[in-house]
Amino acid sequence: MRTILVIMFFFSLQFHNAQTLKIEKLNVSNSKNNDDLSFLKEEIKDRKMVMLGELTHQYGTIFEMKTRVVEYLHKELGFTTFAMESSMYDLWKKNLHQNFNPVDFNKAVYGVWSKTKEFQRLVNYIDKHQLKVIGFDSQISYTNEFIDDFFDFCESNNIKIKLDEEDMAIVLEGVLNDNSFEEYDMKFSIYEKELKRIIKKIESFKNTELNYYWLQFLKGVLAASRDAYVNTKEAPSYDFLSPEHNIRDAQMSDNILSYIERYPSEKIILWADNIHIINSTASIKDSKSQKFVSMGNHIKNSLGNDVYSLATLHANDSISYRKKWSKTPILMKSFENELVDLGIPNLFVSSNQESMKIQRKNRLVSYLNFYESRLDQLHDGYIFMKHAKDSEPYIAKSTINNQYEAVVLDSLQKENKIIRKKTENTIFKGKVIDLETKAAIPYATVILKKQEIYRVCDINGNFAIPISKQMKKDAIVDISSMGFTPKTIPLNMLSDIIYLNPSVESLEEVVIKAYKTPLSVMKIAVRNIKNNNPTTPFNYQKYTKVKININDKDILDIDLLRKEYDQGYRQLNRSTGRVDQIKWNKNDFGNKIKNTHQLLGRYRQNALRYSNIVHRRKYKKFDLEFIKSKNPDYEGLYVIQFKTNRNKWNYTNRGYPTNYSGKIYINKEDFSIVKIIENWETTLTKTDIEKYGFYDTRMQYSGKLEEVKIKEENTCVYNKHNDGKYYGHEFFNKSYLEYKNNKGKLYYYMFSEDSSLFDVKSQDVEVIDYDHHHQNETILRRVKFNKDFWDSFSNTLYKKINGKN
Fold first, then answer.
1. In Å, how far from its chain's centre is CA 575?
2. pLDDT for residue 593
3. Res. 403: pLDDT tops 60
């Protein structure tokens, strides 16, 4: 009996030991003392690569903890190469593998890291100790530079491109900028065959460093192209693991493994997301997750025990995704729950122990869902933080930032005289029709400005507006559509059929003698942008009137003056600005509106910088037609009407199907572009909303969206200055949105941004740094309302808009 008890006690002890987790306590994430990491000497031993993971990219404390590990691995274990989950090309282009520069590094690294305060400790450490830095992601941010470099490399190495280079460049842009492959210009099979031919050609070259990198770049482009062509649907947002990621992960592993083969003596620290450094997904109790083959899996199969995967995880009970918070409660008896019960805020768990060789539920592969898996097969070790704190913004240039409350002018605090009694309102329905063709005019706008009502016709030209008895006495209705003469009608004279007269007419091409086609005129105009428009830095003042109307009520009305810094219209970086003066006419948002990015960040006004109709390659893919304006002011101009049936970002700058069209006005003497009008007309069905992932934080609505109707207009006017260059003079942007939920309820949203650009200076230019997290120069309340300034402000557009003429 005694013997039996002894045996039972022994097995009980063995079972208890097998279930007990052995852990190492860790200091806080921002600790300067890394002695608590000394266990890594025994854990890592003589491995040549350590992969550091993170559970999503939003937590600053995790960045800090990972940085401490980097510091220890470098100082104590001799790791000298740092591989970043960022573009291999972008980091190579900045020459960071040979000469590290913090500014260039932050520009080349993805903003989820580089724009955070916590990440800068790592940047400073790399800079101080001059670690070698490389990227391993096949994605590319500096697309235009890459495409130019690619064709230059091929030319200098006598690689003749067998496809049309312009078409190939357009396809490359679609792949790298929009992750889409459209077979408008070439079949994927032909494109793929050509890329593979070029890759094979480079493989036959001498194995120099330059040839090595270009071989990997193009293998990355081929992988990105296959990814875009095959994976047309976005992977689920809540589950990290998906076979849709396999192509990218396979190429990232190839980039790393080829680098190791080329530089076998280097010890590498690799920084990435947890999912990319998983050793094996075989134990995960989810069939879809098991089909995912991570970069780490490829590397582990190749390097075996020479690589160590170190993941991080936390026990936060909520997570932010697309500006919305989701509850993510910790499941009882899960791995995270077990670690929380230990009562230690920061700790390390090695997978090299019996207690890790069992199935446990965990949240390592999903935002919301817990899946069973063997943790010892996912990663070799884990750093756990009971609470991970979101990252803080990194502001490179700090100035005094006085927070002033919004000043609303007393004169504009009068109550709206419009009577809005629902019982008195009736619905007026009408239709807008082309006077000449008698066809309906879709997406025409019907506006009662004084009554703060904005409507857009449907595709059949129909509209409906609420009216009251009071409105019938004095309301004025403005009806307009691009290509038609606007009409202003008193509401009491409005009929249910409104005719608009075309403002342009087709012009037979034989009338144009010197340049007979709109394509040839566009070719010269686009080519001459570098001569006719600024390509070097300059400053200017920009006055902007911003208005937002929600459900027939003006919510925001601001007059804004900014000093802007622009590096030139053909430069990669957008213009940056500083708020110098502000007048709050109306603000029902309160302190929710904090910076210019919230107002202007989603809109790209300067068409010469952003629009694909003036892209050096894409303009020829649009349908172009000469038209003649009935306005005598345009007599000395070529007027070209454009449209396209290509419904991707690569042409429309919209992530969903839209009818994109417009007009370009070109000076006949110097072929300068003096005006661009763009027009987007969109109706998204419930299927479209789901397919294209349309979500919009501008509007609060109940239920689910069944339909969204969008009308957008952008007009840019350019004037000639003393230096002979054409600079932006006036920009006008308007957006009208109509949302319909699953109960048939309609919601309305209007945004307008009217700007005047003046006082252009190309000498003694002041550089205004980009305010990454909008907590410095772009803060709206960094200045007080200055009544004297606005009373004396003589800008023509300001006076016109505010009725001061």
1. 16
2. 85
3. no
Q: For 114-142, what is each residue's pLDDT tens digit?
A: 989 999 999 999 999 999 999 999 999 88
Quote the pLDDT of residue 260. 97
Strand partners, 346: 385
Q: At CA 342, angle to CA 338 and CA 345, rounded to 5?
A: 105
The confidence score (pLDDT) of residue 416 equals: 40
Q: What is the pLDDT of residue 412?
A: 34
Note whether 520 and 507 are within 8 A (CB): no
How far is the first Cα of the chain from the last one, in angstroms, to the nearest whole number?
Answer: 108
Least confident of 134-143, 223-232, 455-464, 559-568: 223-232
Within a 10 A sphere around the Cβ of 719, how many other Cβ atoms? 15
* Spatial distance between the Cα atoms of 34 and 40, rounded to a whole number of angstroms: 11
Residue 648 has phi, psi (to 5 degrees) of -130, 160
Q: What percent of the chain has pLDDT over 90?
A: 67
Q: Which amino acid is at 769?
A: D
pLDDT of residue 570: 76
Which residue is listed with tokens 């428009």? 533
Q: Give the model's pLDDT for residue 805.
A: 59
CA proximity to 175, closest of 237, 247, 109, 242: 247
Buried b (16+ CB within 10 A) or exposed e, 379-411: bbbbbbbbebbebeebbeeeeeeeeeebbeeee
By C-alpha distance, which of 60, 52, 511 is closest to 269? 52
CB 101 within 8 A of CB 131: no
Give the pLDDT band (50/70/90) at residue 239.
low
Decide if pLDDT at 414 tops 50: no
Cβ(627)–Cβ(663) below 8 Å: yes
For the residues of 22-79, what is the DSSP string, one character each? PEEE---TT-S--GGGTTHHHHHTT-SEEEE--SSS-BHHHHHHHHHHHHHHHHHH--
In this predicted structure, what is the pLDDT of residue 19?
58
How many residues does the structure list for the chain?
805
Alpha-carbon distance values, 753 to 44, 522, 709, 797 (Å): 57, 28, 20, 12
CA distances from 429 to 119, 463, 477, 543, 609 (A): 57, 6, 13, 37, 40
CA distance 542 to 596: 13
Compute the distance between CA of residue 348 and CA of residue 26 in angstroms, rounded to an integer: 7
Residue 428, classified by CB atoms within 10 Å of its CB into exposed (0-12), middle (13-18) or buried (19+), is middle
- What stretches of 318-472 adopt beta strand conformation (E)? 318-321, 324-327, 346-350, 359-362, 371-374, 381-385, 426-434, 445-448, 453-456, 462-467
d(CA 610, CA 629) in angstroms, rounded, equals 25
Torsion of CA 634, 640, 646, 647, to 10 degrees: 10
